[in-house]
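Run Cholesterol side-chain cleavage enzyme, mitochondrial through structure prediction, thanks.
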Amino acid sequence: MIGRWRVCSRAVAPCCSSWALYGDGGVMVPARGCQSASVPIVRQGTKPDSSLGIRSFNEIPGLWKNSVANLYRFWKHDGFRNVHRIMLNNFKNFGPIYREKIGFYESVNIIKPEDAAILFQAEGHYPKRLLIEAWTAYRDYRNHKYGVLLKDGEDWKSTRLVLNKQVIAPQVQENFVPLLDEVGQDFMARIQGKIEKSGNNKWTVDLSNELFKYALESVSSVLYGERLGLLHDHIEPEAQHFIDCISLMFKSTSPMLYIPPWLLRRLGARVWKDHVKAWDGIFNQADRCIQNMFRRLKQESGGEGRYPGVLAILMLQGTLSIADIKASVTELMAGGVDTTSITLLWTLYELARQPELQEELRAEIAAARAASQGDVMEVLKMVPLVKAALKETLRLHPIAVNLQRYITEDVVIQNYHIPSGTLVQLGLYAMGRDPQVFQRPEQYTPSRWLQKNTRYFRSLGFGFGPRQCLGRRIAETEMQLFLIHMLEKFRIENQGQMDTRSTFELIILPEKPIVLTIRPL
Ligand code: HEM
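Sure, done. The structure for Cholesterol side-chain cleavage enzyme, mitochondrial is below.
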């Protein structure tokens, strides 16, 4: 105890709150004990003690005193689409911690890995992100249940624990691999077909819509154990509509982070109407897939040993209610499209700029193929550079601009007292580009992740702890298989494009189309 404050140097390793660890920083199932480490955390107390030199919450630099003026300034600088660049600037201006209030959105923002460690240590047993009111408002409006993404407290935890076992536990990967590998191979056959059709031995294209289809086909095959057929030339209009709705859902969310959805709804604002239209499309398509699945389950007596998909397993298991399963499966489907496809697009963009890196990756993949004698699971264990490339993409082009938690205890970060209940955000985009955290951050260098001691609270693209990305296992497997197949068959070239800027539409995506040329090896 120091004064009224207790300083605790408990573990800030990637494991806390009595959950056991799965993979890279993943904390998934209840377990005993916690690892040890050394970051001091103020655990209790109501007021900062100036005799310790700890500065008060109100001394944190930033723009938080006039939230309406801040909203106006933010809107004038096209902030809705520039959140990531504004954060980067704020860290340059205010230093490694700043406080902000824009409209009704109030936060403390941090950038250092060691501060991220303190943040996640203080996330409590039921980690909570910023509630995206637009998403809950839609569900309340249409009377839909909340799924794992939006649930809270014990309700979230019990659902998440059931889902973890089917979606993210290491042992489920072998169920997914044959399905995802098949989708990967079909995608490559599709590219080959396009190249042949072009008549000049190459295909020059903005791949984004193709990648959306690849991602939806992949996630659906895992969720429903069945192919949607999106990699054919003619796809069902509902499937394309679903893809368009996901983009619209993300795009229409970002203004509603700062302006309450109930107000926009009352004003009959376009953004609210678009948002409803988008979620309606998402829920309708997910419902169609779920209904098909029900029908199939009733008709089929036995699955001849074939993996039936996450949805069927959850239904047969009967631990969650049908309404809960539907809500979470819809969210998994919605979360599984733009995230992986945009990450793959950025990866191809970076690889197109570095032909020699493509060769290095090809050599690694060829060696893994030769050593694994046709076993895809084995190949996946032998491609560290492929995995590092995806990490590097998420460093420079993270899907989420920040990671957020409402802290459940008082902490001291950068010598400022932050009271329990505050929304603290780790600037993921800004951290990835901070030269004090990553040497030569502007360079795409996957091998940096192969060096020892580079990972301490730095590789956080999928979040951290028990509330990290639930779809991580699917996403990683899907993206690794994609790169393996792609690099085995094709060379990726760019069109001499200058740097492509990114824009914020709740997730970070390229501002303009990325046009690539794909040639057979
Ligand atoms: C490159 C791909 C992806 C990235 C970078 C990504 C990133 C993230 C991040 C940063 C979070 C918040 C984690 C936190 O707060 O600690 C998250 C949550 C989530 N993601 Fe992903 N994601 C990806 C793919 C997917 C896929 C493929 C799915 C579905 C199959 C998915 C489903 C979810 C769900 C359901 C949550 C909420 C989990 C919860 O609240 O318990 N994500 N994701």
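The first strand starts at residue 7 and ends at 8.
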